[in-house]
């Protein structure tokens, strides 16, 4: 069965979304000591996770990225996330 996002947005979106998820996982892995030293944001996780700090949304053919209100990630880590977003999504319309 195909990914629902592929059905709705097409193959290019699906491929970029998978690339973005992989980039964010790599950022979290790079900073694993930071995340593992922080308390969990929800009871199903043993420690904080990068996905607790951002939202990726698609509306009217536009993909947007934002940090959740209250995210206290260091500026340098936020910049890594923004750079990954712009690198992967800059050409999608």
Automatic annotation (TrEMBL):
This is Uncharacterized protein. It comes from Adhaeribacter swui. It comes from the Bacteria.
């Amino acid at each position: 069965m195909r990914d629902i996002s592929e059905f709705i947005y097409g193959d290019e979106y699906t491929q970029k979304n998978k690339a973005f998820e992989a980039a964010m996982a790599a950022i979290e892995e790079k900073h694993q000591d930071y995340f593992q030293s922080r308390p969990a944001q929800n009871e199903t996780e043993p420690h904080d996770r990068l996905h607790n700090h951002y939202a990726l949304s698609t509306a009217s053919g536009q993909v947007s990225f934002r940090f959740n209100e209250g995210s206290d990630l260091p500026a340098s880590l936020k910049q890594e996330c923004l750079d990954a977003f712009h690198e992967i999504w800059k050409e999608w319309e």
